[in-house]
Amino acid sequence: MGKVMPYKGVWPEVHETVFMTDGSYVIGDVKIGADSSLWFNAVVRGDVCPIRIGERTSVQDNVTLHVTHDTGPLEIGSNVTIGHGATLHACTVRDYVLIGMGATLLDDCVVEPWSIVAAGALVRQGFRVPSGMLVAGVPAKVMRPITEEERRNIEESPENYVRYAAHYREGRVLSQAVDR
Q1: Predicted confidence band of residue 76 (pLDDT cuts 50, 70, 90)
Q2: Is 0.90 surpassed by the pTM of this model?
Q3: The organism sits in which domain of life (predicted)?
Q4: Looking at the 3D structure of the chain, how many domains does it have?
Q5: Bond into 12 cis (ω within 30)
Q6: 142 phi and psi angles, rounded to 5 deg
Q7: What does the pLDDT look like over 27-65, one tens digit per residue?
Q8: Cα 24 to Cα 155: distance, rounded to the nearest angstrom
Q9: CATH number of the domain encompassing residue 142
Q10: Is residue 122 helix, strand or coil?
């Protein structure tokens, strides 16, 4: 189970259905909605400003979520998938978004619903990703509208992670782990 820690006396509010694996940390002024999940070594550090995460959002392995006192909070909507190793800093991500592996989102950028930030993309400070678009590159640029298949993937991914968390809870995976 992950760790929940206060910062300056403020404890995170983590819904009872949130799944947290070993090595994940939630610190300070953070609220996480129902059926969301934090995977191995994810860090949600709401120390200098708040972090809000909606329902059914997966924060995958080695993701860093952080804020800055200068630009304000980090807000992540519901049904968002944040891929392995991504970094989101003091930005806004609306509902139904897929953030690719290793992507970096900088202060004050906004990702509108039904959008994809490609793996490895760097979304610069203040950039707005339009709804229904794929952005990619360093710095990220609008490449094209998402396809119907990509839209289905954005919609199905949160369901998959709720199911994966249920499998872990049921012991289907953890019971097979062995120390060597």
Answers
A1: very high
A2: yes
A3: Bacteria
A4: 1
A5: no
A6: -70, 125
A7: 999 999 999 999 999 999 999 999 999 999 999 999 999
A8: 25
A9: 2.160.10.10
A10: strand
